[in-house]
Inverse folding.
RNA sequence: CGGGACGUGGCUCAGCCUGGUAGAGCGCUGCGUUCGGGACGCAGAGGUCGCUGGUUCGAAUCCAGUCGUCCCGACCA
């Protein structure tokens, strides 16, 4: 392919809307073009990258028995009402009407459609298990698209769905998709870290996210300095060690006047005590019901964990009005003496430990409040935000560190969320002729986000350094100078390499500096240079974009050298943190 | 949804404060020179100054509204 015939229009300057490296370089390299906030055209180069990623996805998913299908973006609202998601999802779901005023949605994911397919065709245990997937457009009305392709409103998603006879079968299948994901990211040149993810109602090890560590990531996850524990902060649990210097026998509870002392900071001054000696009681309104969360003062309530525990659709802080209608006073809340209000305790609230808590009347706090003596715990779970430096709960030795990451993919044991009777009610007949509920898993990867992530991981000041598995071309051939013999040799090499590699041949009438800068910006993994200087000695130059390594070889040695370099650039699929199958 | 910034040729920006009818660099077209890290000369094309309304003899410039884009936060099946 000749550069002069191809659609490449690099930009010298940084477009002002771009701040992250992937956004900057994909725009400057004319890989993508913005259409609206979070909506992009993929230009020929970007399109080629996306197609390569799609092919990697197809190869790996076909290899584990997946079958590709295509489902529509346009979905009747009825389908989404059956699963309740029509009501549960907020503004992120695009809702439209057709000419007859019937309600439709633009699918943001395809559980409803695929489950309906399963319901229609998977009647017998003999039909299971089965995995079907697609690579198709997803539409989401994101509140805030950002960072170019990292968070967009329309994108290609590879979404895969598996159907199983029971949880055991799903558990047995899960490692295959997990391992396929590891191979996919590695083949796309991405260093993915699988972490335990928030799995909502499923619990356990039902869900993993594959993260690329990056300062531009929107997610946070913890990793243990000692063991292999890695988890999203929405799920991660650290050890909650009891405060030090506690009396063996706590003194009796007593009220202390505390006018105008409301915040933990004020209280610490007033009582000359550390944060971990206080009980923090936070009032929430969960789907209209007042619920109190009680947690030790040095922790923060995680709204994600708390929402999941309550199985609530909507969780907000309780209004002062709601509190006072129940006879409670903001700033002076505590679990002591509260009746007929649901109270959830975080596991940091240890029994027998004296705390300072609100007095449940204005301007009064209580000292030496002890769980199991002065109040009683009915519901206790982990609802605390994990903290940097917390001791690892898994090994007890390491320290948890918090990192930012880009979510590359997500695997999820859905269970019966969509096949349940009150959802879409999908059953099959088992060997005994009995009705059994179908169990599902779902798995997703965003194609454009992978493209952007690859640039985030692989760039330098001069531009992209694309992994060979997804680069739009494997080789860029630069003919430097205007001498006819150089062009002649470059033409010859172009003809010779084209059957074996994807080559973009920079035949433009541009100065050497322009060509070399563009080659760097575009991030093609291997650059071959033909110039008069080299030609005099019968030589050509080969440079590896990523390492910067330059080799000058005889013209005749070029094919062998390229073969060697291309082999070296292939990602290694050994030694990944595979899950035993 | 809350906070902030910005909208002027394809790109990056100046001009706005202090109103008088639009400029630079890059890119683009043609001709010539140059050729290993964004060369140069000459000639040229290209702008409803986001949009609407107001003030004014006169608005890119002042005022109001509106739309759009980006950043931080909230949100994120």
């Amino acid at each position: 392919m000749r550069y002069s015939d191809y659609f490449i229009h690099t930009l010298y300057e940084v477009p002002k809307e771009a701040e992250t490296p992937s956004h900057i370089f994909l725009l400057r390299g004319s890989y993508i073009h913005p259409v609206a906030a979070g909506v992009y055209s993929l230009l020929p180069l970007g399109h080629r990258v996306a197609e390569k990623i799609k092919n990697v996805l197809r190869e790996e998913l076909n290899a584990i028995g997946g079958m590709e299908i295509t489902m529509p973006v346009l979905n009747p609202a009825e389908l989404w009402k059956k699963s309740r998601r029509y009501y549960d999802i907020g503004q992120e779901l695009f809702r439209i009407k057709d000419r007859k005023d019937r309600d439709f949605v633009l699918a943001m994911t395809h559980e409803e459609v695929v489950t309906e397919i399963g319901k229609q065709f998977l009647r017998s245990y003999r039909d299971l298990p089965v995995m079907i997937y697609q690579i198709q457009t997803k539409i989401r009305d994101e509140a805030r698209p950002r960072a170019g392709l990292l968070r967009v409103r329309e994108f290609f998603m590879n979404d895969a769905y598996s159907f199983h006879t029971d949880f055991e079968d799903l558990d047995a299948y899960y490692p295959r998709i997990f391992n396929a994901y590891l191979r996919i990211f590695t083949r796309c040149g991405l260093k993915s870290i699988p972490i335990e993810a928030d799995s909502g109602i499923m619990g356990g090890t039902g869900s993993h996210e594959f993260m690329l560590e990056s300062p531009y990531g929107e997610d946070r996850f913890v990793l243990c300095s000692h063991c292999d524990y890695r988890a999203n902060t929405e799920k991660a649990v650290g050890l909650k060690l009891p405060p030090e210097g506690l009396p063996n026998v706590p003194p009796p509870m007593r009220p202390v006047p505390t006018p105008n002392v409301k915040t933990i900071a004020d209280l610490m001054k007033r009582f000359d005590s550390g944060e971990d000696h206080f009980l923090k009681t936070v009032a929430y309104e969960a789907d209209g019901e007042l619920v109190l969360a009680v947690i030790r003062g040095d922790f923060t309530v995680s709204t994600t964990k708390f929402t999941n525990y309550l199985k609530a659709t909507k969780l907000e802080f309780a209004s002062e009005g709601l509190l006072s209608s129940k006879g409670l006073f903001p700033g002076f809340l505590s679990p002591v003496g509260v009746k007929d209000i649901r109270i959830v305790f975080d596991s940091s609230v240890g029994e027998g430990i004296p705390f300072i808590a609100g007095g449940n009347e204005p301007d009064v706090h209580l000292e030496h409040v002890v769980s199991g003596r002065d109040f009683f715990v009915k519901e206790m779970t982990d609802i605390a935000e994990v903290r940097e430096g917390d001791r690892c709960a898994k090994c007890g030795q390491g320290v948890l560190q918090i990192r930012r990451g880009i979510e590359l993919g997500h695997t999820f044991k859905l269970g019966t969320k969509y096949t349940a009777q009150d959802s879409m009610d999908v059953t099959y007949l088992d060997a005994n002729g009995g009705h059994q509920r179908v169990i599902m898993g779902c798995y997703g990867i965003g194609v454009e986000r992978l493209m952007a992530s690859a640039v985030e991981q692989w760039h330098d000041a001069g531009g992209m350094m694309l992994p060979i598995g997804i680069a739009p071309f494997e080789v860029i051939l630069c003919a430097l100078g205007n001498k006819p013999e150089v062009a002649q040799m470059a033409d010859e090499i172009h003809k010779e390499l084209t059957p074996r590699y994807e080559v973009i041949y920079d035949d433009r009438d541009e100065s050497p500096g322009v060509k070399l800068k563009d080659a760097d910006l575009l991030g093609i993994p291997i650059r071959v240079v033909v110039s008069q200087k080299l030609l005099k000695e019968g030589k050509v130059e080969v440079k590896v974009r990523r390492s910067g390594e330059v080799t000058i070889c005889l013209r005749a040695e070029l094919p062998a050298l390229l073969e060697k370099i291309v082999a070296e650039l292939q990602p290694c699929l050994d030694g990944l943190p595979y899950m035993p199958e």
Summary: Chain A has a mean pLDDT of 88. The longest strand of chain A covers residues 400-415.
